[in-house]
From TrEMBL:
Entries under SUPFAM superfamilies matching the protein: Nucleic acid-binding proteins, Prokaryotic type KH domain (KH-domain type II), Transcription factor NusA, N-terminal domain
GO CC annotations on file: cytosol
Protein name (database record): Transcription termination/antitermination protein NusA
HAMAP family: NusA_B (MF_00945_B)
S1 motif domain sequence ranges: 138-203
Family, per entry: Belongs to the NusA family.
SMART domains in the record: S1
Task of the protein: Participates in both transcription termination and antitermination.
Length: 411
């Protein structure tokens, strides 16, 4: 029974997904040698044969035949009289080789060996998982949602390894349920209490980069290089690309015919807006491209302070800033410049629609002016503070602040 117990343990773990056969044989041999040393004091004169195909194992012990009464170490030597009971042809100086059965070690030793074998294999398995994923940081992995918690989601890869997708690494629009297939990038791998902790991410710039490599063959082949990626996950991303082949348009190759290549990426990222721009060492041009889709009238750079003053037509200001300020924030991260946007007013322009000030004045305040028929800057400026306070539900301080913003437009 004890023999079967130990072999069953071996059979149970020998095909473990992350451990190869030579390693498994080595583990088995270590466990057996430990048993031998406990029983006989040494394992130097023992040979162990492990058959990985069927789980069979054999232990052969060799002792030197000594004259009766001259044996000093029963573990390494055997007296002639005893040796002849096994083989009558043996003489002094011969080697006596015997097969040791597992049963001879006793039930308790067998159970202890089984437990040691199980724990060693599990330890090896954890180490192998850690090494495997540590070498794959930055790669895309696909898994299936196993459990969804408040702060993180547990994903199982195709080998059943556990991957953690924290809420902070999820796109805001992500919604998962058990059984869903999820793609993410391997972000971080740590060992915590001897257990590998594999963190994956859908918000890291590397995830977007790998998606581009999958969708755009020119990037995968190295003909186009992604110089930098900045993201506001789920909202907007800017990708600067450069081609080493003058015949290849890097932006066109990344977007694809009628957006065919980029559409798949946008869907994966829950409709995140992706601006692909040509990288250039010309800082002024780079800032202009980074503020896409806004069209800039003029720009002043301070390379020492890393600041950029950008002048635009009134109808381009909101495009440059973007919803929630994402466009200008990402343009700054991409270029490394702190960007300030200024409205450029034509001298001959008679008036400006108050909607053009939506980035500086709250929408509900603008609505209050429009309610009383004041929908241009000058129509408001033509009235006094007292009159504006009387006609609207706005406080004097708010009115003065609005007038200050509108005055600066025409200065």
């Amino acid at each position: 029974m004890s023999n079967i117990n130990l072999i069953d343990s071996f059979q149970e773990f020998k095909d473990f997904k992350n451990i190869d056969r030579p390693t498994m044989m080595s583990v088995m041999e270590d466990v057996l040698r430990s048993m031998i040393r406990k029983k006989y004091g040494t394992d130097e004169n023992c040979d162990i044969i492990v058959n990985t195909d069927n789980g069979d194992l054999e232990i052969w012990r060799t002792r030197i035949v000594m004259e009766d009464g001259f044996s000093e170490d029963d573990d390494l030597e055997i007296e002639l009289a005893e040796a002849k009971t096994y083989d009558p042809d043996l003489e002094v100086g011969d080697e006596h080789i015997e097969l040791i059965t597992l049963e001879s070690f006793g039930r308790r030793a067998i159970l202890a060996a089984r437990q040691t074998l199980v724990s060693k294999v599990l330890e090896l398995e954890k180490d192998e998982i850690y090494k495997k994923y540590k070498d794959r940081v930055g790669e895309i992995v696909t898994g299936e949602v196993y459990q969804v918690w408040k702060k993180e989601t547990l994903i199982l890869d195709d080998e059943g390894n556990e991957l953690l997708l924290p809420k902070t690494e999820q796109i805001p629009a992500d919604y998962f349920k058990k059984g869903d297939s999820v793609r993410a990038v391997i972000y971080k791998v740590d060992m915590m209490n001897s257990n590998p902790k594999i963190i994956i991410s859908r918000t890291a710039p590397e995830f977007l980069q790998r998606l581009f490599e999958m969708e755009v063959p020119e990037i995968f082949d190295g003909l186009i290089t992604i110089k930098k990626i900045v993201r506001e996950p789920g909202e907007r991303a800017k990708v600067a690309v450069e081609s080493y082949d003058d015949r290849i348009d890097p932006v066109g190759a990344c977007v694809g015919m009628k957006g065919s290549r980029i559409h798949g990426i946008v869907r994966e990222l829950k409709n995140e807006n992706i601006d692909v721009i040509n990288f250039t060492n010309n800082a002024s041009l780079y800032v202009q491209r980074a503020l896409s889709p806004a069209k800039i009238t003029s720009i002043k750079l301070d390379d020492d302070k890393k600041t950029a003053a950008v002048y635009l037509k009134p109808d381009q200001v909101s495009l440059a800033i973007g919803r929630g300020g994402h466009n200008i924030k990402l343009a700054g991260k991409l270029t490394g410049y702190e960007i300030d946007v200024y409205r450029e007013v034509d001298e001959h322009e008679e008036d400006v629609d108050i909607e053009e000030f939506s980035d500086e004045i709250d929408g509900w305040i603008l609505d209050e002016f429009k309610r009383i028929g004041l929908d241009t800057a000058k129509s408001i400026l033509n009235l006094s503070v007292d009159e504006l306070v009387k006609r609207t539900d706005l406080e004097e301080e708010t009115v003065k602040e609005v007038l200050s913003i509108l005055h600066s437009e025409f200065e």
